[in-house]
Amino acid sequence: MANHTASCLCGKITFSLEMEDYSMSACHCHTCRQWNAGPLMTIMYTGKIQFHNKELITHYQSSEWAERAFCSACGTHLYYRLKHSGRYYIAAWIFKPPLPLNFNLQVYIDNKPDCYTFANQTHNMTEADILKMIADKN
Hints:
The chain is mostly beta strands. It has a single domain, classed as Metal Binding Protein, Guanine Nucleotide Exchange Factor, Chain A (Beta Complex), CATH 2.170.150. It has two helices and twelve strands, in the order E-E-E-H-E-E-E-E-E-E-E-E-E-H. It has helices at about 30-35, 125-135, and strands at about 1-5, 15-20, 25, 40-45, 50, 55-60, 65-70, 75-80, 90, 95, 100-105, 125. The strands form two sheets. Strands 6-7-8-9-4-3-11-12 form an eight-stranded mixed sheet. The chain has a four-stranded antiparallel sheet with strand order 5-2-1-10, with no helix packed on it.
Protein backbone atom coordinates (compact mmCIF):
# COMPACT_ATOMS: atom_id res chain seq x y z
CA MET A 1 0.00 0.00 0.00
CA ALA A 2 1.29 3.44 -0.91
CA ASN A 3 0.88 6.65 1.07
CA HIS A 4 -0.55 9.65 -0.83
CA THR A 5 -0.99 13.29 0.16
CA ALA A 6 -3.78 15.63 -0.92
CA SER A 7 -4.50 19.30 -0.29
CA CYS A 8 -6.87 22.08 -1.14
CA LEU A 9 -5.84 24.85 -3.53
CA CYS A 10 -4.60 27.21 -0.80
CA GLY A 11 -2.80 24.36 0.99
CA LYS A 12 -4.39 25.04 4.38
CA ILE A 13 -6.14 21.65 4.45
CA THR A 14 -3.95 18.61 3.88
CA PHE A 15 -4.37 14.91 4.49
CA SER A 16 -2.57 11.67 3.78
CA LEU A 17 -3.95 8.20 3.27
CA GLU A 18 -2.77 4.76 2.26
CA MET A 19 -4.27 3.33 -0.91
CA GLU A 20 -3.99 0.33 -3.13
CA ASP A 21 -7.16 0.75 -5.23
CA TYR A 22 -6.85 3.51 -7.82
CA SER A 23 -10.32 3.16 -9.34
CA MET A 24 -11.87 6.47 -10.34
CA SER A 25 -15.51 7.18 -11.05
CA ALA A 26 -17.46 10.09 -12.53
CA CYS A 27 -20.88 11.20 -11.32
CA HIS A 28 -23.17 12.95 -13.80
CA CYS A 29 -26.08 13.71 -11.43
CA HIS A 30 -27.45 17.24 -11.48
CA THR A 31 -26.20 17.99 -7.95
CA CYS A 32 -22.60 16.95 -8.72
CA ARG A 33 -22.59 18.85 -12.02
CA GLN A 34 -23.99 21.96 -10.32
CA TRP A 35 -21.51 21.71 -7.42
CA ASN A 36 -18.52 20.94 -9.62
CA ALA A 37 -19.37 22.75 -12.89
CA GLY A 38 -19.02 19.34 -14.56
CA PRO A 39 -18.97 15.68 -13.57
CA LEU A 40 -17.51 14.94 -10.14
CA MET A 41 -14.52 12.62 -10.54
CA THR A 42 -13.63 10.75 -7.36
CA ILE A 43 -11.83 7.84 -5.77
CA MET A 44 -13.61 5.78 -3.13
CA TYR A 45 -11.94 5.46 0.27
CA THR A 46 -13.23 3.56 3.30
CA GLY A 47 -10.46 4.11 5.84
CA LYS A 48 -9.89 6.79 8.43
CA ILE A 49 -8.50 10.12 7.29
CA GLN A 50 -6.46 12.48 9.45
CA PHE A 51 -7.04 16.02 8.25
CA HIS A 52 -4.66 18.90 9.05
CA ASN A 53 -6.70 22.07 9.82
CA LYS A 54 -9.95 20.08 9.94
CA GLU A 55 -11.71 23.15 11.36
CA LEU A 56 -11.46 24.76 7.89
CA ILE A 57 -13.60 22.02 6.34
CA THR A 58 -17.20 23.09 5.70
CA HIS A 59 -19.82 20.36 5.28
CA TYR A 60 -23.01 20.74 3.27
CA GLN A 61 -25.75 18.11 3.56
CA SER A 62 -26.77 17.73 -0.09
CA SER A 63 -29.21 14.84 0.44
CA GLU A 64 -30.64 12.60 3.16
CA TRP A 65 -27.79 10.16 2.66
CA ALA A 66 -24.74 12.30 1.86
CA GLU A 67 -22.72 15.39 2.61
CA ARG A 68 -20.18 17.35 0.59
CA ALA A 69 -17.07 18.98 2.00
CA PHE A 70 -14.98 21.91 0.86
CA CYS A 71 -12.27 24.23 2.16
CA SER A 72 -13.80 27.33 3.77
CA ALA A 73 -10.71 29.37 2.83
CA CYS A 74 -10.35 28.63 -0.91
CA GLY A 75 -13.48 26.63 -1.80
CA THR A 76 -11.71 23.51 -3.08
CA HIS A 77 -14.07 20.54 -3.22
CA LEU A 78 -12.58 17.81 -1.03
CA TYR A 79 -15.03 14.92 -0.86
CA TYR A 80 -18.54 13.56 -0.94
CA ARG A 81 -19.35 11.25 2.00
CA LEU A 82 -22.13 8.68 2.36
CA LYS A 83 -23.51 9.08 5.87
CA HIS A 84 -24.78 5.49 6.35
CA SER A 85 -21.42 3.89 5.57
CA GLY A 86 -18.94 6.69 6.21
CA ARG A 87 -17.48 5.93 2.77
CA TYR A 88 -15.60 8.85 1.23
CA TYR A 89 -15.53 9.78 -2.45
CA ILE A 90 -12.46 12.01 -2.58
CA ALA A 91 -11.91 14.51 -5.38
CA ALA A 92 -9.55 12.69 -7.74
CA TRP A 93 -7.31 15.59 -8.75
CA ILE A 94 -6.31 17.04 -5.36
CA PHE A 95 -3.41 14.61 -4.84
CA LYS A 96 0.23 15.59 -5.40
CA PRO A 97 1.69 13.97 -7.36
CA PRO A 98 -1.38 12.83 -9.31
CA LEU A 99 -2.50 9.26 -8.62
CA PRO A 100 -2.15 6.50 -11.25
CA LEU A 101 -5.92 6.34 -11.72
CA ASN A 102 -8.03 3.76 -13.53
CA PHE A 103 -11.26 5.40 -14.77
CA ASN A 104 -13.76 2.54 -14.69
CA LEU A 105 -17.21 3.70 -13.50
CA GLN A 106 -19.76 6.35 -14.45
CA VAL A 107 -22.87 6.86 -12.32
CA TYR A 108 -26.09 8.67 -13.15
CA ILE A 109 -25.08 8.05 -16.76
CA ASP A 110 -28.66 8.74 -17.88
CA ASN A 111 -28.30 12.29 -16.46
CA LYS A 112 -25.12 13.04 -18.47
CA PRO A 113 -25.56 15.97 -20.87
CA ASP A 114 -25.08 15.14 -24.55
CA CYS A 115 -22.35 17.79 -24.97
CA TYR A 116 -19.52 15.60 -23.59
CA THR A 117 -18.43 11.96 -23.61
CA PHE A 118 -15.43 10.19 -22.08
CA ALA A 119 -13.37 7.93 -24.34
CA ASN A 120 -12.82 5.25 -21.66
CA GLN A 121 -14.92 2.11 -21.66
CA THR A 122 -16.51 2.08 -18.18
CA HIS A 123 -19.17 0.29 -16.19
CA ASN A 124 -22.24 2.57 -16.29
CA MET A 125 -24.99 2.89 -13.68
CA THR A 126 -28.25 4.82 -14.11
CA GLU A 127 -30.05 6.97 -11.55
CA ALA A 128 -32.45 4.07 -10.89
CA ASP A 129 -29.49 1.73 -10.26
CA ILE A 130 -28.00 4.12 -7.70
CA LEU A 131 -31.28 4.86 -5.90
CA LYS A 132 -32.01 1.12 -5.62
CA MET A 133 -28.54 0.50 -4.21
CA ILE A 134 -29.04 3.25 -1.60
CA ALA A 135 -32.53 1.97 -0.67
CA ASP A 136 -31.20 -1.58 -0.27
CA LYS A 137 -28.60 -0.34 2.25
CA ASN A 138 -31.10 1.57 4.42
